[in-house]
Design a protein that fits this description.
Elements (H helix, E strand, L loop, with lengths): L16 H9 L7 H10 L5 E4 L6 H11 L10 E4 L3 H15 L7 E4 L5 H9 L4 E4 L1 H10 L9 E4 L2 H6 L3 H9 L6 E6 L4 H10 L4 E4 L9 E7 L5 H12 L4 E4 L3 H13 L4 E4 L5 H12 L5 E4 L1 H4 L9 E4 L6 H8 L9 E7 L4 H12 L2
Parallel strand pairs: 1-6, 1-7, 2-4, 2-5, 3-4, 5-6, 8-13, 9-11, 9-12, 10-11, 12-13
Helix pairs in contact: 2-3, 3-4, 6-8, 10-11
This protein binds adenosine-5'-diphosphate and magnesium ion.
Length: about 375
Amino acid sequence: MTSSSLGASFAALPLSEAMQANLQALGYAAMTPIQAASLPLTLAGKDLIAQAKTGSGKTVAFTLPLLHTLDAKRFAVQALVLCPTRELADQVTTEIRRVARAEDNVKVLTLCGGSPIRPQTESLAHGAHIIVGTPGRVLDHLGRESLNLDALQTLVLDEADRMLDMGFADDIAQVVAHCPKQRQTLLFSATYPEGVDKLARRFMRDAQEVKLAERHDTSLIRQRFYEVTEPERLHAVGLLLDHFRPASTLAFCNTKQQCRDLVAVLQAQGIVALELHGDLDQRDRDQVLVRFANGSCSVLVATDVAARGLDIAQLEAVINVDITPDTEVHTHRVGRTGRAGESGWAFSLASMDEMGRVGRIDQMQGRA
Ligand code: ADP
Ligand code: MG
């Protein structure tokens, strides 16, 4: 993002000089809208419900308040960030470490499933200030008493909508039961369905709300719809890639089977494509993301669950291989490109049947 497209400077906030300098060094010249709207409240200790689209800078928006109350000289877990997936937890951990390097020796530990529990237990025994993890594994550690949250000051529920979609409501409730009543709770979500509202009401006290327009800034995203017949659909993806030659593409399918089929079709056309979906084990998923990040694979084929919230920079194109029945999901998919002020392509392939959905999408996006 360029500072010209953004508003207020971080300098207006009660942050240490070292933190101000670090934010500058990270290239964060000005606050994003969600940061500008939420930080004055959260740095003052308020509970907060924040809704803003993917890529709007929510991680920094919760990292600054949790660091604000953190005392690195105190060897206890003082902040917990719950995330839906390990990839997101890894990204959040990386971002917190970058922001926290302005302070002395803040230890951040990731606790997610898919990794052996023993090394995590050993790391916990060495002490950590901030835990970032998935609800299931965090709960596991609480049950084993390898994790203690008695000194917790800040609880963050990141991507709350996605955590609910993934069935974490009960796990979250159990984790919250281990947290002190006196704490700051921050809830971040890209969408705000009823379930999230219920969750918020259950766990938050007198929460402030900041909800930014749900619509992505589509001005930098060029959207195109193509009508296809069913037999043409997968082949059409190859034609689009061939014609526009984007350096990096995320192709969304509605099902895992469709992902597998598309990868096979693209590979037969000599295009290096890899799939990312829930059936892959963690190591394979990491491997796929590394290959996509380093450019050795230019097309990632994913389901919505697998792709949600990943901060993939420089995504030149998004392809909707199927049109999703959910207009909000469509908005999310398209919003994965054209991020951080870059322009991007969004291609959608629609059968005659799906054209009705396209009409709804057009309506939605025509709305101010
Ligand atoms: P979200 O959680 O809302 O999807 P992220 O926290 O992943 O968004 O941030 C998206 C990108 O924006 C990241 O690459 C992050 O480093 C960057 N970013 C965050 N805050 C700023 C800022 N103030 N100025 C410029 N870039 C920022
Ligand atoms: Mg996020």
